[in-house]
Design a protein that fits this description.
alpha+beta, Rossmann fold, Elongation Factor Tu (Ef-tu), domain 3, 3 domains, 8 helices
């Protein structure tokens, strides 16, 4: 830790406190503000965020560098985001951003600046283990972001530091306030990494043309029209514009499946309708943060961010994919999202969900349409 450390500064309170803590350790700290989105509109806060990062660096007395990775972002993250939506899946670009941008091209840039370590404001913990770098959940489980970091390479993880991993968010705010950091009361950012607060449908419509199709019940009755499968995700309630339907209870409708072959959205009533529940999934090839596991094992998994850990029986397949069978049926398991695997606090790795299964009347399995 005697070498120069580059801190990725976003202009928010978390990365500012990460830099503060490292500076207090007497380390040589430099800040790096990266721009990943180059569109200038009312929703882009990059210019204001850079000024906040600059003021933080002035307060801490550390240099600030600036770099744009917008081209790499469009190629490696945004391109995947669009192609997944075209296929009717629901991707998680934040996972890809961490792997390809923050701990990919940004880490490489940090090394060109003389930094051997890249620190960020993520709520997670990194530790040196017998097999190399380990990724663990943050102490503040309500803020834990290990889910979004599971696809980072082990070599890159070894060069990462997460100074906030041992702290609750309330203490982070208190440290910023006591140190007089100008962003101590700045609201947390929300939303997808490049979309932010902008309306999702309006944004997506700039890149994907409408492809209207029928909305049908699980019994095949047409109850509405959708603009395109890309605008919907499994379990979704809002934005269907179905309203009351004669012969049906006055209850909300939920997206249960996407039939891409017919360009049809299938909806059901009831938050826990059987068609919303899955007992198994199969994934794309897994990314491991341990030596590759080849035998079946019990583990805890997250199928979406902020979900409580769920017990599962994991069976590695010969081609690197995974099959997971849940101890209890899971609601709205979504192809394109990630299944992240844990043993205690340690993240073992994860994989993108490819397809899900639900039980049939005869006990057989049936693939959910996507």
């Amino acid at each position: 830790m005697g070498a120069r450390i580059i801190v990725g500064l976003s202009g928010g309170v978390d990365s500012a406190v990460a830099a503060l803590l490292l500076r207090r350790q007497g380390l040589e700290v430099h800040g790096l503000f990266m721009s990943n989105w180059d569109e200038d509109d009312t929703y882009c806060t990059s210019a204001a965020d850079f000024q906040d990062a600059r003021r933080v660096c002035e307060e801490l007395g550390i240099p600030l560098h600036r770099a744009s990775f917008a081209e790499e972002y469009r190629q490696r993250v945004f391109g995947n985001f669009l192609s997944e939506h075209r296929a009717g899946r629901t991707p998680n670009p934040d996972v890809l951003c961490n792997r390809e941008i923050k701990f990919g091209v940004c880490l490489a840039h940090a090394r060109r600046l003389g930094g051997e370590i890249l620190a960020t404001g993520h709520y997670a913990r990194q530790a040196a283990g017998a097999e190399g770098a380990e990724l663990h959940k943050a102490v503040d489980l309500a803020k834990d972001q290990s889910y979004f970091l599971h696809a980072v390479g082990r070599d890159e993880l070894a060069r990462a530091r997460f100074p906030l991993g041992e702290l609750p968010k309330t203490e982070v705010r208190a440290l910023a306030r006591a140190a007089g950091l100008p962003v101590h009361d700045k609201p947390d950012s929300t939303g997808i990494c490049f979309i932010g607060e902008r309306p999702f449908r309006e944004f997506l419509a700039q890149y994907l043309p409408d492809q209207p199709g029928p909305i049908e019940t699980d019994g095949g009755l047409r109850v509405g029209v959708h603009r395109g499968l890309a605008y919907h995700t499994l379990g979704q309630r809002n934005g269907l514009l179905i309203g009351g339907q004669a012969g049906f209870p006055e209850q909300p409708w939920y997206v249960a499946a996407k039939d891409a072959a017919r360009n049809t959205l299938v909806v059901v009533q009831g938050h826990d309708h059987p068609l919303l529940m899955s007992t198994e999934l199969e994934s794309e090839p897994a990314h491991w943060l341990v030596e590759r596991l080849t035998r079946p094992f019990h583990a805890m998994v997250k199928l979406r961010y902020r979900q409580a850990d769920q017990a599962a029986w994991i069976e590695p397949l010969a081609d690197g994919r995974l099959r997971a069978r849940f101890a209890a049926p899971q609601r709205a398991v979504t192809p394109g999202q990630s299944m992240v695997i844990y043993s205690g606090t340690r993240c073992l790795g994860g994989a993108v969900i490819e397809r899900t299964f639900r039980p049939c009347g005869d006990g057989a399995r049936e693939a959910q349409a996507i």
